[in-house]
Amino acid sequence: MKHRSAKILATIGPASSSPDMLSLLVEVGVNAFRLNFSHGSHSDHERSIKFIRKIEKETGKPIAIIADMQGPKLRCGEFKNGQIELIFGQEVTIINSNFTDDANVICIPHAELFDVLKPGNTLKFDDGKLKVTVISNNGSRIMARVDVPGRLKNKKGINVVDAVLPVSAMTNKDVLDIKFALSQEVDYIALSFVQTSKDVIDARAIIGKKANIIVKIEKPSAVRDIDTILDKADGVMVARGDLGVELPLEDVPVVQRKIIRKARILGKPVIVATHMLESMIESPTPTRAEASDVATAIYQGADVVMLSAETAVGRHPATAVAIMDRIIKSVESDPEFWDYFSTTDLPYLDTPEDAISQSVYVMSKTINCKAVFGYTNTGSTVQRISRERPSCSIIGLTPSIKTARIICLSWGVIPLLMEDPKNFDEMLPHIQKASVIYAGLKSGDKIIITAGIPFGRPGTTNTLKIDMVN
């Protein structure tokens, strides 16, 4: 296979924000970049976006940009000595305050917690390193028992288990960040700590059609409401960091597989993120377990695998991308990888797009097709072909740079800009050329072409043609 089907998403940070490093990351295999709005200023992100767009123009390769919002991250307040010691079995008082000088009191400046927490609910601190269970709550004071002891320091993060908080997935900061990101024409907005489908609806009211929405699944309430959330979103990220804190650790792999399957059925890109090659923040090689973790996500059918701190602050960002690229290609060269997709049934909608995408998959196997060329204005038909997981390349032809960037995250799709042809015959010479340059095909190779006639009208895919490379 000349082209890798699964995509790589890299996070930009101090280790990767220079033009030379960004260019190198694209060269070794990055398809999309993530801007983490939990860190950095608007000017930092604007500079990175300009560098990426310059690289895109120089290489002719569309690159997707994801603006990842911070979301409503809960943190405890400050303590007299900068920390308190939580002892196993100890009963502690939790108050709604920014500061406390009492060694047996935890201060939390989030009034909404006191409205919803009930006996039996669990609070975890500092990425799950400490844990308390609520005993009672009178609305102003919470009594809790320490189950996992340790030192709780100032402003450490809080995860609330088994409770839906009356807070939006968008803070005031997020709204400002979203508006800035849209002004920079990013392709995706990633929403953090989504709890219900209402969070997506609220974000859509601000974002409209200016960017696609990715929901980050980090909370048990989102897992329970996954079907309605995915229905409203354009893509999904399995954010295993906070998800692994709020869910039992052993449930995370099960949830990951479940979300990947659901996203594929819907034809929406799914990203697996967090701790994929974590040891490469320092080490030049990953552990065998990390390599297996990446491979597992690919075997399960993930569209995208993501590098976080590995490329943001790690010592070997380009090496991490190159190794991830090698792991993906190794999996995709395994015949059993393709067997899995051929034995899983997909539901179909009563639409021309699904009729054509299903036909493309069957025909590509029957005639040993080497590439599928999908002409698209919105990307929808190409995404439906992508969910079929054909074993040949998928070339997404589009006159829209916005669409080209959007389909960067779709499995197997190689985006390629092409102006609207006047008719089908005018398009064929361009496809012949692209077959050799972008799909690495040779004379005699069979290809499939899908398009909507007349050209230039979204949602009109109605034509399928078998052709041969001259």
Question: Which helices and strands, and how do they pair?
Answer:
Blueprint: E1 7-12, H1 19-28, E2 32-36, H2 42-59, E3 64-68, E4 74-75, E5 78-79, E6 83-86, E7 91-95, E8 99-100, E9 105-107, H3 111-116, E10 122-125, E11 130-137, E12 141-148, E13 150-153, E14 157-161, H4 172-183, E15 188-191, H5 197-207, E16 212-217, H6 220-224, H7 226-232, E17 235-239, H8 240-246, H9 252-266, E18 270-273, H10 288-300, E19 304-307, H11 309-312, H12 317-332, H13 335-342, H14 352-366, E20 371-375, H15 380-387, E21 393-398, H16 401-406, E22 413-417, H17 424-437, E23 446-452, E24 461-468
Parallel strand pairs: 1-2, 1-19, 2-3, 3-15, 5-8, 7-9, 15-16, 16-17, 17-18, 18-19, 20-21, 20-23, 21-22
Antiparallel strand pairs: 4-14, 6-13, 7-12, 10-11, 10-14, 11-12, 23-24
List keywords for this structure.
470 residues, alpha/beta, Pyruvate Kinase, Chain: A, domain 1, 3 domains, seven-stranded mixed β-sheet, 37% helix, elongated
- Helix proportion: 25-40%
N-to-C span: 20 Å
Could you tell me the radius of gyration in angstroms?
24 Å
Number of domains: 3
How would you sum up this structure, described in words?
The chain has 470 residues and is of the alpha/beta class. It has 3 domains: 7-71 and 169-333, TIM Barrel, CATH 3.20.20; 74-161, Beta Barrel (M1 Pyruvate Kinase, Domain 3), CATH 2.40.33.10; 352-468, Pyruvate Kinase, Chain: A, domain 1 (3-Layer(aba) Sandwich), CATH 3.40.1380.20. It contains 17 helices and 24 strands. Strands 1-2-3-15-16-17-18-19 form an 8-stranded parallel β-barrel, surrounded by 8 helices. Helix 1 crosses helix 2, helix 7 packs across helix 9 and helix 10 (288-300) crosses helix 12 (317-332). The longest helix has 18 residues, at 42-59. The chain is elongated, with a radius of gyration of 24 Å.
